[in-house]
Structure formats: C-alpha cells, structure tokens
Amino acid sequence: MSTEGRAAYAAAALARVPRLLQLLDRDPTSSSYGCFDRAWWHLRTADFPCGMSEEGALALALAATLPIPGSPWHQQARMLEWARAAIAFARRKSHADGSCDDYYPFERALGAAVFSLHALALAAELVGCTDEDRAFLARRARWVAAHGESGTLANHHAIAAAALAVAADVCVLPELRAAAQRKAAEVLALQHAEGWFTEYDGCDPGYTTVTVGFLAAYWKRTADASVLPALVRACDFLESVQQPDGTFGGEHGARNAHHLNPHGFELLAAQVPAARRIADRVLLACATGAVAENDDDRLVVHTPGPLLLAWRDFHERRVQAEALPLGQKYFSGAGFLVWRIQDKSLIAGLHKGGGFRVHVRNQLVANDSGVALVAQSGEVLVSHLRHDAQVSDDGAACLTTFAPVRREKLTPLKSALLRLFMLGPGRCARNMVRKILQRRVVATRGASPFTLQRSFRIEGADFVVRDVLRAASGAPALRSAACSVGQTSHYTAAAQPWSSAWLLPWTDLPDAPAALNAGRDHSFERRW
C-alpha cells in the first residue's frame, strides 16, 4: 500500500454514515431534532433518550468538514446543521448539572458523559455552537471532572482526559486542563507493568486500543509528555497480542470486546515504531473486512469518529503490513499465551479457562471460547467465567472451575421497579444502583463440581491443545458437552459483534456426558 492506504479508514467510516443518519431525527420542527436515539424519538419503545447516542454528532461534523476524495458528505450544509442540532439536543436533554443517562433514567452515567462530551466538544470545535451550548459543554465537563463510577474502567478515564482537554479549548476554561491532567494520571495508575490497562478485573486488548486512542488524543492536544512512556508500553503490548489479520480482542480477553480504535496509533506513528506497525496491520484489517461489525443501533456511534480522525491524522508513509514477529510469550498478569511459529499463530487467555484463537496463514481456523456443559436440568455451565485459574510455571496450562451461566433479562416488572426507585431515592444513589446491577449482570460468581484442565504444547510445527474434563462426586448429570465458539456469559455491551469467526462450528463432545456421569475423566486433543 502507498500513502493512499489510509483510504481504508475513510471507506469504513463513510459506509456507516447513512446508518447514523437513519438514527437521527432530521426534522427541524421536531422537539427531538438532533436526537440519535431512534428507539426514543421514532419507535417510541424507550422512555428516555440515551445520552451516549449523541456521540454521532462527531461523525457528521468530520464527514462534512474533511476533504475526503469522493465523499458525498463533504461541505454538505445539512450535515453541519445536524451536527449543531445534536449539540443543542444534548443540551436540552441533559440534567441540570450537565450529566446524562445511558441505560436507565437518572443514571448519570460517566461512560455516556465522557463519550458524548468528547464528541460534542470536538464537533463544536469543527462546526461551531451557540453560547448556550458552550455553557452546557462547560457544565458537562465540570461534572465529569468531579465524578467517578463504580468498577475499574481505564478507557472511561482516558476518554475523560481527552474530553476535558477539548472542552478546555472550546469553552476557554483553563481549569479544565488541570482536570484533564488529573484524569490522565488516573489512567496511568491503572496500567499494568506488562503495558495493558485494567478493565474491571483484567486485560482486554480491544478496550486497550480505546484507552490508547483517547490517551494519545489527550497527549497530542496538551503535549503532556508524562503519558508518552505509558503509551509506548501499551503499544508494545498490543503489538504482541495483535492477531495476524490485524484485529484485536475476542473471548480470550477479560471483557470479550472486539474494539479496534486506530486513532491513537496514527497519532503515535511518527514517534513510536510499534504504533506505526500496528496501524499498518489495522489498515489491512479495514481493507479486507476482518474487523468485527460492532454496529448495532447503540454502538454504531462509537465507530465512524475514530476512523475519520485516523484518516485526518494519518502519518504519511508507505503502508506495509509487516508480519508479526515469531516466538513465544506469556504475559502472566494478563494471562495471555502467545505463540507464533512459521505461518501459525495461537493466542490463549489462560485466566479465562484457556479460550484461544488459532490463525494459519492469516486465516482464523479456531475460535474456542471454552467448554460448555448442559446439565439434565437445563442448567448451562461454562469454563470461561473464572478469572482465578491456576497457571503452570511454563505458562502452557490452566485449571479452571466451571461456573453456572446467568442470563438475566429485563422484565416489565423489573423495569417498573427500577424506574420507580430511580424516580425517588435512586436519584441520590447512582453508584449504589450501578454496583447492584454490576453484581447481577457483570460480576462472575458461583462454582460447580466440574473442572477443565487445558494444556498447550508445540509438537514440531503443530499446536496441540489437550483438555481433561473432571467431575467431583455428587456432580449433576449432564446431557451434552461442546467446545464453544464466540460464547460469552457475562455482560459487556461491546461483546457479541458480528464477524466471520462465528461461522466456525462448535465441536460436540458426544462421549463426555456419559464419562463424566459415570465419574470418569474425559480427555481429548486437537491439533493445528
């Protein structure tokens, strides 16, 4: 590829613009003009607009102002109007303190606030806004600066740092620069010695690309040199776990995310060789369609902006997707085993029961998310929920305990009770409510009398994975067992996107139930 290789960024982003415009209320006579939450303003199946959705303003502003060759959106006056309308709608529907909601009323969600603040402030910088809108951005920025959230999400703090830095310029409020620096320091405190940033209770490569993207944007705007060494370490780690097709993430990561934010790599490409090499492979992934389609109505607002920013801030070079270096690595903190020999690659998450992906000649041939057992009672038990797996010294084996799956769904009664509570005392207990919900749908808990011992070895040029299933006395009877593909059993909004990886079949284990029911171990091997 030549320097024209960056066109892959633009093509991937612009293909999503019509989807964004369909989500947008484009009628200037409507009270919801500028709203990107179609479920609220058009379908009327939601009872409040999601504040995160207004992130779509940035994609419209960038598409209208960037001189992308062949773009039908460049210099379209309506696009500029709609971007300004989105800023105005966010102002009208925010709480008095500048905060906004994401999943339920009066949530005052930090994630929605930081994503939308960054996008709206950048959009305002590009297309302009009223004094009233600028005052609103200042209120949201001050709220972000003063509030945290339950759970450990490094990417939210990185987004906050970038958002506050932009708001400081747009609102001409130098004190927000100091707040941005404090947020950046929080991000640095969440970096592991191996280079990744903590998301809840572990390492997720997809989310690490998001953290790098926004922390690099903060660095570029503020010239805060204190974050550059952390970004270098993060890029070194990410290159080690980048997949041969240029993508990141999967069910071996802590949060099952498939995010791929390329903007930070382009910002760093001139100074950080690993970032340039990562970006070259990401461009290849964009051009070949390897990137997962994480574009439902809620998440599509996340994707076009970083792609267009990567196009805008592209580091001029001849794009050459270098092959990933061969060798064997084990990141004990992340629990990642990475083997690359000849034309084969294996990445396994040993802290998640040994879920793994195998690529041969850059093609995904195995996408294992662990073993799933189904009891005669119908209860589902999985091996990928435990983060306390025992890992052998050589980093090539793990022992994990199966855990029961909880797939709790929202019901009319639960929805009514939550909203009634949030209309009353819940308004003053946002973090308590969030913690309760996290314990119910995010946190992993519980164990069963089944274990999986999974070991990895190399024989010649082959990867060999050996599994041993074991049942303790008194274990419930099983009716089926299988090695799963793309299975996730705890809540992450960004999990379960679409990619061709899901076309790979599950591997049934027809002899396992009988053996385990009789108290015998069941073992089997697979080879690539």
What's the short story on this structure?
With 528 residues, the chain is α+β, with helices and mostly antiparallel strands. The protein contains 17 helices and 16 strands. Strands 3, 4, 5, 6, 7, 8, 11, 14 and 15 form a nine-stranded antiparallel beta sheet that branches. The protein has a five-stranded antiparallel beta sheet with strand order 9-10-12-13-16. Strands 1-2 form a two-stranded antiparallel ribbon.
Question: What features would you describe in this structure?
Answer:
This protein has helices at 7-14, 17-23, 38-41, 56-65, 77-93, 110-127, 131-146, 154-170, 175-189, 205-222, 228-241, 263-268, 273-288, 304-312, 412-423, 430-441, 512-517; strands spanning 198-199, 202-203, 327-331, 336-341, 344-349, 355-360, 363-375, 380-382, 390-391, 397-401, 403-404, 450-459, 462-471, 478-485, 507-508, 522-527. A hairpin with a 5-residue loop joins strand 9 and strand 10 (397-401). It is 39% helix and 17% strand. It folds into two domains: 3-312, Glycosyltransferase (Alpha/alpha barrel), CATH 1.50.10; 327-407 and 444-527, no CATH class. Helix 4 (56-65) packs parallel to helix 14, helix 9 packs antiparallel against helix 10 and helix 11 (228-241) packs across helix 13 (273-288). It is built from 17 helices and 16 strands. The model has no long low-confidence stretch (mean pLDDT 93). With 528 residues, the protein is α+β, with helices and mostly antiparallel strands. The strands form three sheets. Strands 3, 4, 5, 6, 7, 8, 11, 14 and 15 form a nine-stranded antiparallel sheet that branches. The chain has a five-stranded antiparallel sheet with strand order 9-10-12-13-16. A two-stranded antiparallel ribbon has the order 1-2.
